[in-house]
Design goal:
Layout lengths: L21 H21 L4 H21 L6 H38 L6 H29 L2 H15 L10 H18 L5 H5 L4 H24 L5 H31 L6 H32 L3
Helix pairs in contact: 1-2, 1-5, 1-8, 2-3, 2-8, 3-4, 3-5, 3-9, 3-10, 4-10, 6-8, 8-9, 9-10
Length: 306
């Protein structure tokens, strides 16, 4: 559990923080957004927006600490990032279920040309029941988490981070050096990706999910560098990373939808027509996975520097 009474990022300089600390300013801003999300959550009708803001801020704080971890206390940073990962995962499950159900509804409607047959209708009803149940469970889990002592400990640590940002590195070139290290990790992960159709059929999505995480991490690293420069340091790189991330988001969404269709098809005692419709839906989403992979490849080859 993250300890609220510690300030492991405080420089041993009599409590003084060096001016122009880009990492500190970035984390301060994200911590402020996280606390604003908490305030929105307390207001009626703002739950969805609050959860999105909380997740976004938590991801950025965690990402910045992962890339620039050598500038902080390692034990504190690792423990805090683990708690932030718990927050983002717990608050994100409901959104994932909603988005997945909407995607599968749209795909079924498209595949049936707007006039679903009995199999498609039953497949849609089955997915509706399963994903609605999962969404309701996720909603309950999120509410429980937001009221837990564990979440309040995370919020307390974020509040401390907002009030007392960490110091800048002793040498300004440290930030670009650590960002470059993250970039090399990304390049290595992209280098082992396979566009092979056999790999696609086997559903080997893990390496792609890892690249997606590393693209996002590199984006957050770049945001800290932008903070250091007071403007976008490399606008073209930022655009390419954003486009690459969007393609990989589509990959994630399609892979998740395909998995949901396959899981529904394994439901005991469903009618053959329902199972057939779910099989067609699964194949359709795997084609979407393939399209997203090639879209990422085109974006990547266009301009992400090596």
């Amino acid at each position: 559990m993250v300890q609220r009474h510690r300030d492991p990022l405080l420089a041993e300089r009599g409590g003084q923080r060096p001016a122009g600390d880009a990492l500190g300013r970035y984390l301060h801003r994200q911590a402020t957004d996280f606390l604003r999300g908490l305030r929105l959550h307390a207001e009626a009708g703002e739950a969805a927006g609050a959860a999105g803001l909380l997740r976004s801020a938590a991801r950025r704080i965690s990402g910045a600490l992962e890339v620039y971890g050598p500038l902080t206390d390692a034990d504190w940073s690792d423990a805090f990032r683990a708690e932030l990962a718990w927050v983002t995962e717990t608050l994100g499950r409901e959104y994932v279920c909603e988005a997945r159900l909407a995607r599968l509804r749209g795909a079924l409607h498209r595949l049936s040309c707007g006039a679903p047959d009995v199999g498609s209708a039953r497949a849609g009803a089955l997915l509706e029941r399963q994903l609605t149940l999962a969404r309701n469970r996720a909603h309950s889990a999120a509410l429980q988490a937001l009221g837990s002592a564990r979440f309040h400990a995370v919020a307390d640590t974020v509040a401390l981070l907002s009030a007392d940002p960490p110091p800048a590195p002793a040498a300004r070139e440290t930030l670009p050096l650590l960002a470059d290290r993250a970039h090399r990790r990304l390049l290595d992960a992209v280098g082992v990706l396979s566009y092979d159709t056999e790999a696609l059929a086997l559903g080997e999505d893990g390496p792609w999910h890892r690249v997606r995480s590393l693209v996002r991490l590199r984006r957050y690293a770049q945001e800290v560098l932008d903070e250091q420069h007071g403007a976008e340091a490399e606008p073209a790189l930022s655009i390419h990373l954003l486009s690459a991330g969007q393609a990989l988001d589509r990959h994630r969404d399609a892979a998740g939808a395909a998995a949901a269709a396959a899981s529904a098809a394994r439901t005991p005692r469903i009618a053959p027509a329902t199972a057939y419709a779910l099989g067609v839906l699964h194949a359709d989403q795997r084609h979407e996975v393939e399209a997203a992979r090639f879209a990422f490849g085109r974006v990547w080859q266009r301009g992400v520097p090596s």
